[in-house]
Write a structure and sequence with these properties.
It is built from nine helices and two strands. The protein has a two-stranded antiparallel ribbon with strand order 1-2. The two termini are about 35 Å apart. It has about 240 residues and is mainly alpha-helical. α2 packs antiparallel against α4 and α2 runs parallel beside α5.
Length: about 240
Amino acid sequence: MIATGVLLALHVLVQWQALGLTRHAVDAIAADGTIEVFIGERQPAARAILDLTAGSSLQMCLFLPVLGAILGGHEARRLGAALLAVPRRTVLFAAKTVAAAAWLACTCALVSLGSLLFTWLAIRGWSPGLLRTAVVPQLQFVGYALLYSLLGYAFALAGRGVLAGLLGIVAVTAATMTQAAPHWLDALLPLSAGRNLLLDPHVDGTLSSGPAVAVLVTVGWAVLTLTAAGLVLYRRDVP
């Protein structure tokens, strides 16, 4: 699919442009083990590299739900006649969702592999073994990104078109980016859940603390939106 190719090409382009800066920062790691990724801000090198790897994957979550919306819109157009011909709509919906999830999972995995590859290129002269530590967070990313991408798919199916899926994702993303929501509500937004899971997984006693809450929020959004899309399809054209 062209959209998948464009998304992966964009990921490679962004990572390639950042590779030189990351290599320069790694080459300048201080004797105390700190690195200056951002000007004037020194951090423990290992932690900073792991966060950079997670962040490079997470930033693609601005685009992965768009791919989900494209898939959902494509299926919405094809389902018109199929719903009349197939009496077991629940089975049809489940099969279509599994197929879309498989495609999205492969795309998310390729994004993750791309991030790991460019991290290795940046640190291979310093500590290539650190890459093993980044594998688990990247597996978490694949699971999170898949569920988040399915939101776009569900919005598009429920709204019977790509535009509905895009509008749904834009609304959810804007709610996070504007930072207008109070802290407790922001923690319940799916994009914030990804940040809390991959970039800030520390327990601090608040609603957003720890990866468990982030997982529950992400799963909850996926289940609710897919259930709503399934109900819309089940009732479609039914007297």
